[in-house]
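Appendix B. Raw example, untouched.
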Amino acid sequence: MHIVEEHAELAGMREEVLETVTDAERVVEGQGGELLAVRTMEQSRAMVVVYREVDQSDGFIITAFLTRRLASLDRRQQLWPPTK
């Protein structure tokens, strides 16, 4: 997977990237129609996987990264799980 090969901080984390998409804690809206799957890795650090869905059974990953800037994710529209 190109993402884990080209991003040193994600070296050896292929399974974690895939698990973030399939088992995200939450999904927030991107700025251009993409989706951001978020999963906490450590207390103040999360993995974010940016992806697009083609339909309900197909999609593709655009990029992934680790971040401590959780407040910037909190400002985005949360799509899943639905907020009350």
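End of appendix B.
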